[in-house]
Amino acid sequence: MGLSKTIWTNPSEIIRIKKPDHPVLVFAPTVLQATARRFLRGFPGLVTYAVKSNPDEIVIENLLAAGVRGFDVASPYEIDLIRRLAPGAALHYHNPVRGRDEIAHAVAAGVKVWSVDSASELDKLIAMVPADGVEIAVRFKLPVAGAAYNFGAKFGATAELAAQLLRRVADAGFIPSLTFHPGTQCTDPMAWDAYIRTAASISAAAGVAVARLNVGGGFPNHRTKGRAPVLEDIFALIDRVATEAFGDARPALVCEPGRGLVGDAFTHITRVKSLRDGEHVFLNDGIYGGLAEMPLVGTIDRIEVYSPDGQRRTGAPVDRVVFGPTCDSVDRLPGHLALPADMAEGDFVAFLGMGAYSAATNTRFNGFGALEIVTALALQG
Ligand SMILES: *Cc1c(COP(=O)(O)O)cnc(C)c1O
Fold it and tell me: Does the CB atom of residue 218 touch ligand 1 within 6 A?
C-alpha cells in the first residue's frame, strides 16, 4: 500500500498515517542503546541480557551494537539464536532445570556457565558436563518483598541447601559461583542488600570462595507515572554492599537484566474497538496478546490516547473498565484505567514502557494478536 516507512518519527505519526487496526509495538533503537550504555557504564561488573524478556533479533542486534557481550539463555532455541547473531558472546545457561537432551545441546554449543538449584539437577550436570573451565552458579532464594511477584516460588535453593551445593560444585572441579533473582520489577533496592549479604554467608558456611556473584535481573523499568526508577542508585547499592559483605574476597559481579534493559525501549499502540454503551472500553489487544503481563505485574499507567488523526486526547481522566478482544471473560486489564473523557471509538491507546514480556508472550488466541513491530525515533508524542 506504500504506507510503510522504515523509521517513523513517533507514535502520533504512525497513528495518523497507518491507522493500524492491529496492535503495533513501536521500537526506538536509540532508547535501547542508551539504556544498554547506562548498564555498561554504571554496573560494577559484566552485563548480560536475559533473552526471554524480548528475543526479537532487532533487539539483540541493537544490544550488540551498544556493546553488550553476554546473554542469559534458557533453552536450546535461545542458545542457537545468540550463537547465530553473536558467535563470540558469553552464554549463561541460567535455567536451573534442564532435560538431558537440552544439556547435551548446550555442551555441544560450548556453553561454559550454568546455574543449578537442586541436588538432582547438579547430579545431571556433573555426569554430563566436562568440568574444565566450566562455571556452575548455585541459585538461592530469600523470602524478600519488593518485587512485582515472587520469583522464589519456582526456583532457588534455601541458603542451607545452597551451601551444600556450592561445596559439591567446588569438589567436582567446577568454578563455584552464586546467583539469585530478586524478583522482576524490583523497585526496592534493599532486596539486593539482603541477597548479597546472604550470598556472603553461604560462601562462608560452605568454606568456598565464589568466583562470581550474579545479582540477577529484576531491575525495574518506568511503568507508573512520576519519577523513573534510577538504575544508578541500584548499581551503587550493589557495589557498596558487595564490598561490605565480602571484603577482600569480593567476587566479580554479573547482572542479567531483561525488563530493565528493554522495557522502556517500546511503546505499545492498541485501538479502541468499542466504547460499549459509553462505558466499557474494548481494545484490540489484551491479556492473551501484548498486554499479557498486566494482571501479573500491574497495569502500566503511562498511557497516551490519540484520535485517528494523531491528536492527543486531553479530556479529564475517567476511570474505565478495559477489556481485551477475545471472548474469554478473564481477558480484562486489572482494576480501572484512567482514560480521557473525550476518548471515542476508533481512538488509539498507547502504553509506554512495553518492551519486556510483550512481543515475547503474545499469542494468536481466538484469532487476535496480529502484532506488528515498527521502528521509530521517539516513543512519545
Ligand atoms: C527472567 C530472568 C531474568 C530477567 O528478569 P527481569 O526481571 O526481566 O530483569 C534474569 N535471570 C533469569 C535467570 C531469569 O529467568
Answer: yes
The CATH number of whichever domain residue 195 belongs to comes to 3.20.20.10
Q: Which atom of ligand 1 is nearest to the CA of 259?
A: 8
- Per residue in 279-311, pLDDT (tens digit) is 999 999 999 999 999 999 998 999 999 999 999
CATH of the domain at 371: 2.40.37.10
Give yes or no: residues 258 and 276 share one domain: no
Alpha-carbon distance values, 180 to 94, 124, 252 (Å): 10, 21, 14
> Mean pLDDT, the chain, as a whole number?
95
63 and 16 together in one domain: no
Cα gap 319→68, rounded to integer Å: 41
Q: Is the overall model pTM greater than 0.85, yes or no?
A: yes
Our answer on whether the CB atom of 181 is closer than 6 Å to any ligand 1 atom is yes
**Residue 239 lies inside a defined structural domain of this protein:** yes
User: Measured between alpha carbons, how far is 223 from 272 in angstroms, rounded to an integer?
Assistant: 21
User: Ligand 1: distance of its center to the CA of 217 in Å?
Assistant: 4
Average pLDDT over residues 62-78: 98
Q: Is 82 exposed, middle or buried (0-12, 13-18, 19+ CB in 10 A)?
A: buried
Contacting residues for 277 by C-beta, under 8 A, at least 6 apart: none
Ligand 1 binding pocket includes 369 (Cβ within 6 Å): no
Asked whether residue 53 is assigned to any structural domain, the reply reads: yes
pLDDT digits (tens, 9 = 90+) for 265-284: 999 999 999 999 999 999 99
On the CB side of 268, CA atoms within 13 Å amount to 30
Tell me: do 87 and 142 sit in the same domain.
yes
Whether 40 and 133 map to the same domain: the answer is yes
The band of 151, judged by pLDDT with boundaries at 50, 70 and 90, is low
Cell numbers that stand for 161 in this block: 541447601
Looking at 262, 294, 315, which one is the last position of a domain? Answer: 262
Which residue's entry shows cell 570462595? 209
- From 262, 277, 295, give the residue that closes a domain: 262
CA dihedral angle for residue 202, residue 204, residue 205, residue 207, rounded to 10 degrees: 120
On the question of pLDDT at 134 being above 60, the answer is yes
Q: What is the DSSP letter of 213?
A: E
